[in-house]
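Person: Show me a sequence?

Helper:
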Amino acid sequence: MSLEGAYDPEKEQIVVSFRELLLLEDQLPGKHTDNHTLLRFLRMRDFDLIKAKEAFLNYLKWRKEFRVDAIIKVNANSVFVVVCTWNL
């Protein structure tokens, strides 16, 4: 595992610890667990593992509640063609 940008072994170790904390509590889903996502939550909470975990779990809860992962990706070009032909 490595983080992009300037290499900081201390921050990399914190990401590893954060991942292990989530794994130990069986709260690490298959998605949204790449190093950069986890680092984002750690930075947001000044590298406090407990606060970062709370923010991360709230993020996952929000995604589930609003069914973000179920949103269909729409090809904008096909929508544009349909809308334009309706207006003719």
Summary: The chain has a mean pLDDT of 85.
